[in-house]
């Protein structure tokens, strides 16, 4: 069984990888590039390999790390993704999560740095987060080792299920219509659960995604239509849609202590 560990730089990915694998690690380079590749066996599970992906902010095609990470996810299709996010920086970290969820790979989110979040008095409502994302969510402190075992057990569980829960979120209706039209054009060459990811990338004019597909359909009509309709380029449209979704997650799932109020009480 292969589990990919994915997250932003500084989210605590190395700390978690070490906690999960102990000294059972193999370090090399990704083929053809000088990006470090680390894999290790999950402690107590000889048959579970944890693949540490490079720290990234997005699955866009702009940095070597992003390309390495997404090529691995698309070509190797790990059994599950363990997405580590920094709980003290939800907004920025969730940007990657929204993209990982579109790959159609079973996923568990580990909200890290919970020792700091709890100390601050801020609250992350895990149940609501789980609902809004449609995936399992576990709180952890990779540094203190809390929740790590539970995260590993949950990710094994979802990997065994084999099928990913489809993303629960929908973008604005016009964008969804265009994505539907692109997904239809993708036909049977792309497995159903991967269609949303490829449709979004094609709409974003991602020039490297064509290489990952046997045959990339022409989606220029869809691009022209939505750019005129929303008066913006498609890449910005999708980015904005993601931030609208993330804002709604933060509104419902995060309570920040109001320091001003505290002082006046
Ligand atoms: C330094 N809680 C807390 N409090 N800190 C954590 C946790 C957690 O749950 N998880 C990780 N960290 P990486 P990437 C550091 O290195 O694993 C800390 O990039 C320091 N170093 O210890 O490296 C972790 O692999 C000096 O902090 O992240 C590390 O994803 C002073 O978060 C940092 C303070 O973790 C990044 C911190 C010399």
UniProtKB/TrEMBL annotation:
Binding site for GTP: 7-14, 32-36, 52-55, 112-115
Residue ranges of domain FeoB-type G in the record: 1-161
UniProt: Mg(2+) 2 binding residues: 18-19, 21
Binding of Mg(2+) 1, residues: 22
Localization (cell): Cell inner membrane; Cell membrane
Summary of the function given for this chain in its UniProt record: Probable transporter of a GTP-driven Fe(2+) uptake system.
Family: Belongs to the TRAFAC class TrmE-Era-EngA-EngB-Septin-like GTPase superfamily. FeoB GTPase (TC 9.A.8) family.
Name this polypeptide is given: Ferrous iron transport protein B
Species for this entry: Catenibacillus scindens
């Amino acid at each position: 069984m292969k589990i990919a560990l994915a997250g932003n730089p500084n989210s605590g990915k190395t700390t978690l990888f070490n906690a999960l694998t102990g000294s059972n690690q193999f370090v090399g380079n990704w083929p053809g590039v000088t990006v470090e590749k680390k894999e290790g066996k999950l402690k107590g599970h000889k048959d579970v390999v944890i693949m540490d992906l490079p720290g990234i902010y997005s699955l866009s095609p702009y940095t070597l790390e992003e390309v390495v990470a997404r090529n691995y996810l698309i070509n190797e299709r790990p059994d599950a993704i363990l997405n580590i996010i920094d709980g003290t920086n939800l907004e920025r970290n969730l940007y990657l999560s929204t993209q990982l969820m579109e790959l159609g790979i079973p996923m568990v989110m580990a909200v890290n740095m919970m020792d700091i979040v709890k100390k601050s008095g801020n609250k992350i409502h895990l149940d609501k987060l789980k609902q809004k994302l449609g995936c399992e969510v576990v709180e952890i402190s990779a540094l203190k080792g809390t929740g790590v075992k539970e995260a590993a057990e949950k990710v094994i569980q979802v990997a065994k299920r084999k099928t990913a829960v489809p993303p629960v979120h929908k973008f604005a209706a016009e964008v969804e219509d265009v994505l539907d039209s692109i997904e239809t054009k993708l036909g049977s060459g792309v497995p159903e659960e991967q269609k949303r990811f490829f449709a979004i990338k094609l709409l974003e004019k991602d020039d490297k995604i064509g290489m990952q597909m046997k045959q990339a359909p022409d989606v220029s009509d869809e691009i022209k239509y939505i750019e005129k309709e929303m008066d913006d380029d498609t890449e910005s449209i999708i980015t904005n849609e993601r931030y609208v979704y993330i804002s709604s997650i933060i509104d419902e799932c995060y309570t920040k202590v109001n320091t001003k109020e505290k002082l006046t009480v």
